[in-house]
Amino acid sequence: MIAIFGAGAIGCWVGGKLAAGGADVTLIGRARVMNELAHGLRISELAGAEHTVRVTTSVEPRDAARATMTLVTVKSAQTAEAATVLDAVLPDGAIVISLQNGVRNASLLRAALPRRRVLAAMVPFNVVRKAAGAYHRASAGALRIDDEPAALPFVAACNAAKLPIETRDDMLAVQWSKLVMNLNNAINALSGLPLAAELAQKPFRRCLAAAQAEAFALLAAAEIPTARLTPIPPRWQPRLLAMPDRLFQLLLPRIVPIDPSARSSMWDDLEAKRPTEIDYLQGEVVELARRLGKTAPVNEALVRLVREAEAGGRRDYTGEELARALGVTS
């Protein structure tokens, strides 16, 4: 049995996909989300295919005890709490897989769950909740996971479900590269627009390019490697973002196809009045700069603006307004 602990949008979609491939899946999450699945879980693909699957649901963490592997999909700020809960219920030797944003969650789980095998994994795609019990994958990409024998059962389950997955021996580089891509989460949340509509506007892309260039410079200074997750090398991303609108819109579907309905998870969090993961995205860049004795002014400004949005501040910046607020010039 595969347990999905902290099943929200990502957890429900991945769990539903694995169940459609024949896996025995139990989703463990908040009662509000689990109650919506009483009549089945509907999952749909970027290309439009839709499935309704039956999955076991629970609000009790102890139901993870009988799982052969547990996928952790809670928000980064909840990882420590999740680890404490799982430590009380998981047997020795259990496989735990972190399917979370950021770069530190797997390490935190390893420290808190020393008698279990914790693997880092990465979800590249966006999932949106379209209706009660209905989740849609709104962008493309293959899962990545630590290249270790303990990952083989999960890889087999993904293969059975036709869910693309790659094993990697450079997961920290993968996670940092995903984090740099996820720097757009804050920009999207502050724009109030769907991802495709936001990225179609060059002023917003200039903001993202500045945040990414800042991050790449710090990663180079810290000698932290990055990994190629799309058809273009990661450090080419700021240059791609600087292209004219028409050319960028022609290239984007070939690099990262995005559904017109897709929005960032940070937009979802602000919409639901939940704390965001800003500390684990832009905040990581700011912290890296601090450790190096440097500054990250663009990412620092994005942290401040998202904090203001969490407190009820603006979430409808135009691209030019946001660029001015970040000190980004053309």
Q: Between the first and last Cα atoms, what is the distance in angstroms?
A: 53 Å
The major beta sheet can be summarized as: 8 strands, mixed
Helix content: 40-55%
Number of H- or I-type helical stretches:
15
CATH class of the largest domain: Alpha Beta
Low-confidence stretches: none
Q: What is the arithmetic mean of pLDDT?
A: 96
Report the oligomer.
single chain
> How many domain modules?
2
By DSSP, the count of extended strands is: 12
Largest sheet: spatial strand order:
5-2-1-6-7-8-11-12
What does this structure look like?
The protein is of the alpha/beta class and 330 residues long. It has two domains: 2-169, 3-Layer(aba) Sandwich (Rossmann fold); 175-326, N-(1-d-carboxylethyl)-l-norvaline Dehydrogenase, domain 2 (Orthogonal Bundle), CATH 1.10.1040. It is 43% helix and 15% strand. It has 15 helices and twelve strands. The chain has helices spanning 9-20, 31-35, 79-87, 105-112, 152-160, 171-182, 184-191, 195-199, 202-221, 237-241, 245-255, 265-271, 282-291, 297-310, 319-326, and strands spanning 2-5, 25-28, 41-44, 50-53, 56-58, 69-72, 95-99, 117-122, 127-131, 134-137, 143-146, 165-168. The strands form two sheets. It has an eight-stranded mixed β-sheet with strand order 5-2-1-6-7-8-11-12, sandwiched between helices. Strand 1 (2-5), helix 1 and strand 2 (25-28) form a beta-alpha-beta unit. Helix 7 (184-191) crosses helix 14 (297-310), helix 9 (202-221) packs parallel to helix 13 and helix 13 crosses helix 14 (297-310). The longest helix has 20 residues, at 202-221. It starts with a strand and ends with a helix.
